[in-house]
Amino acid sequence: MESPHKTSTEKVLTETYGNFTHRAPAPLEKHGVEMMEAKRARQEAEWQVQMLENRLSRLRMEDQKTRKKIAETKHKASSILEQRERNMRESELKQKLQSEQNQTIVKQQKSSLKMAHNTRSKMQNIRTGVLKSKQQEVQQLKTSAKEYSEKLQKLRQDDLEKRAAIRNSIAKKEQQEKERRERERKAKEEELQRQFNQKLEEERGRTLVAAEKLRKLEQEESQLIDRLRQSYSIQKSVYDQLETVITSGGGSPSSPSSRSQSLPPVRKAV
């Protein structure tokens, strides 16, 4: 009974030589048919080996492509999430800064309105006092007018200084924000450069791994070719000896057991 674990080469050799120990040599007119059948079996086995090697090569290539696509997709998703988080933080910071600026402006506007209202009240009081004591306190009115002018000038000066301080504060905050954005831009550029360097190193590492794998495959291919050459040499030797046994003249045919012992051993394909 034929073993279910025989390789394609063993099956071909069994089909070709396995029954020679159980029957007498075939007539000469059948030699050509048997030789054609042996060649056909050998060609079929070689074709199956080639097809299997091609399928294995395509499967390896497809597996490498799939793994590479998965790694690229993960890296791209991670970069998108990080960029989205940075954008959200920048947006929140801008909104907070804008809210603080708006609150500062509102407070300053309220303070200015209150000062203006107080100023108008004071002016109204001064006018009322002047009108009441116009005739009796002309000199006092002049003095009060001078004091009022000085106070008004001082108020205007204070208002200008406060406005200047507000503008300076806003300009300072804008400068700080500009410097912060510049720092973030530089940090982002450094991070992108680091990621580029890391990816470059990974690609170089993959190149080295692929070169090593190619070397091993070429070595394996060379070993397989050597084994096949040895198998072909053994097969040719078996054919030659078989032909010699069949075509030898004189004497009675040798027994099946003696013919089987005269054939060279057949090596199993690994």
SSE arrangement:
Elements: H1 8-17, H2 31-132, H3 138-247, H4 256-262
Could you explain how this protein is built, in words?
With 270 residues, the chain is mainly α. The chain is built from 4 helices and no strands. Helix 2 packs antiparallel against helix 3. It is rod-shaped and about 165 Å long. The two termini are 22 Å apart.
How does the major sheet shape up?
none
Share of β-strand residues: under 5%
Quickly count the helices. 4
As a percent range, the share of helical residues equals over 70%
Rg, Cα atoms, Å: 51 Å
Stretches with pLDDT under 50, minimum 5 residues = 1-9, 16-26, 250-270
* H/E element order: HHHH
Summarize model confidence as the mean pLDDT: 78
Task: Tell how many strands the DSSP assignment holds.
Answer: 0
Shape descriptor reads: rod-shaped
Structural class: mainly alpha
Distance between the termini: 22 Å
Short description:
By secondary structure, the protein is an all-alpha fold. The chain has helices at 8-17, 31-132, 138-247, 256-262. It is rod-shaped.
What key phrases describe this protein's structure?
270 residues; mainly alpha; disordered C terminus; 4 helices
